[in-house]
Amino acid sequence: ARIKEAGANITTEASGGINAASIVAIAESGVDYVSVGSITHSAPTLDVGLDISIN
Q: In tens digits, what is the pLDDT along the chain, a chain of 55 residues?
């Protein structure tokens, strides 16, 4: 927020240690983007294969 108050034209991102319990407070701090890795760290996997036949 202080960067914006100073008139700097900078895009900010918060990342690291952010979860569902802390995201609202972090978003309200004035950052432009919030990265939440826990969304993908616990996602189930999908096994996909591709068979190619060249004639």
A: 576 677 778 888 999 888 888 999 999 988 999 988 777 777 788 899 999 999 8
